[in-house]
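Team,

Forwarding the record for the chain on the shared tracking sheet. I've put the sequence and predicted structure together so nobody has to dig through attachments.
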Amino acid sequence: MAKKFKVTLKRSLIGCTETQRNTVRCLGLRHRHQTVVIADNPAMRGQIMKVQHMVDVQVEK
């Protein structure tokens, strides 16, 4: 079974660059403390790394 990530937005998007806002939106996050489950693939890992200071990531099996 493929791994999945549980991503939670911890910080506000106020004061962030436009590319960071777009990345958070593409991850499926809209509000603070919202959590989404996404598949583990290189594209998603790159998006998480771009906004790693604003999200909390947990690995699910």
